[in-house]
Every structure is written in C-alpha cells, then in structure tokens.
Input
Amino acid sequence: MSPVAIPADRRFHRAHVKPSRRRGRAQAALWPVLKFGALLTLIVALAYEGFVLLANAQALRIEHILVRGNARMSAAQVQAVLGGLRGQNIVFTDLDEWRRQLVASPWVRDAAFKRTLPATVEVALTEREPLGLGRVRDRLFLVDERGNLIDEYGPQYGGLDLPIIDGLQPVSRDWQGPVMDPRGELAARVIQALRASPAIARRVSQVDVHDVHNAAVIVDDDPAVIYVGEDRFLPRLESYLSLAATLRERVNAIDYVDLRVDDRVFVGPAKVKARVDAAPAAAPAPAPRAPRDTRRKKR
Output
C-alpha cells in the first residue's frame, strides 16, 4: 500500500465549528440573566425612589387624632400621651408602640388604632370601670372591675358613689399604675355580683377582704358584719336581708352573721360592755356567748 500523505499544516485537524457553538450557547444562556438583572435593578431603584417619595410626602403626615370611647380620660389627656404621633408618616409609623404607651395610662384598659388616609389616626378606647374606693392606710384609691387600683381618689371624683373596700395590700408612695391584688379581685367579684340587684348594691357601704377566702359585707342601717365567703355572694346576702328582722328579734345586738354554710345562718351576738361605775368591784366578767345557729326559714 502506498503511504498516506499528511499535510504539514496541523491546523487542518483543529475543530473550528465546535468551539464557536459553545460560545454561542453560553452567550444565549447569559443574555436572559443579564436582562433579569437589569430589570431587577430598575425595579429596586424605582421602589427606593417610591419609598423616599412616600416617606417624605407632606400629605401623609398625621394631622388629626380622633378619640372615641373615653369618659374618664379626656381627649386632651389622650392627645398629650400621643403628642409625638402628630407629624409622623401615617404609613410607616409604628402604631403598636403608640398603643402600648396609651394602655400604660391608669384609666385605659385597651385601645385600638386605625389609619385613615391621608392624615388621620382614629383611637378607640376601652376604659377601666371604677367599682369601689380602696382604703389603703390613709389613702383612697379607685378600684376597677378586676380589682386593680386605677387612680388615687381626689376632688375630681367627688361625684362617684362607691362602697369602701378594706383589706387591700399596701402600695408605695410613688405608686404609678394598676396593682394586681387577689384580695382586690375578690372585692371586685363581690361588687360585680351584687350589682345584679341594684337595690341591694345601693345598700352596700363596705366590703372587707382581709381574708382572701371570706369576704365580709356591711350594708347601710345595719351594723352587723356579713360573711359571704368567696362565691354565691348575692344569694347569701339576699337570704340575710330577708331574715334580718327575725334575727334581730331573737338576738338583741348582732356582731356578725356567717352565711358560708348552705342552709345555715350563724349569728354572733355583740358583746355588751358594762359601765365601770355601775359594776360591782368584785363582780366577775361574764363569759362570752357562743354564736347562735339559726336555720333559714323556708318560704
């Protein structure tokens, strides 16, 4: 066989087509990425410009704060707490933080904020309800429906006709806000329950909660201390009031009445103090009388 002649120019064996195809494919794959990157950059730039314009828009500065639901706390007092809110951007301001500041006020139980474009914030308040006057040492405090102290009693609350609550825990001189107290919660439950009968609620002048498991009640025109326990307050007090006249016929002076045992009324007679100048010098002191057990009469 005759030898095959190999050209001297080795470039003859190089593949010129394949490399050009690879470069074309890479460019084709890169082009959508570049287009997407350019589009994304444009969107971010536009969003940033829009954010800057929105944040600096004078039309979106808060100008009006509308308050509703307030009775004890005046609109001016609410405005004072929220004074820094005025002038802020209505879209970007943190209303939850302003709500927390407002709820920290003694009279405010809860608050709801609502944005009304372009420049108004509406505030709906839920206030605490005063049920009694807590007597703590030589000070009086308004007590709310959960037994917390609301505010110190003063001339501005002179129109309130509320029962006195004794037995609450002491508070410091620099007291600032609501104080959780289980005895206050018991007093609030007593007063709330008795409010189901307005006629009886109006007669209650004092609630004593020194014993957190046994509330005591004193009503107008009756010196007896009435123990009503920690539940069924209204039925127990109603039963005593229905029997009060009969009990006084049997016991001249009543010190206390214990209603904690169902279907029974325990009466503690008051101790009669003898006059010193009338008592014989050698006369022994009378032994205290035991409480009298009187069953409730069934109608």
The first helix runs from residue 17 to 55. The chain has a mean pLDDT of 80.
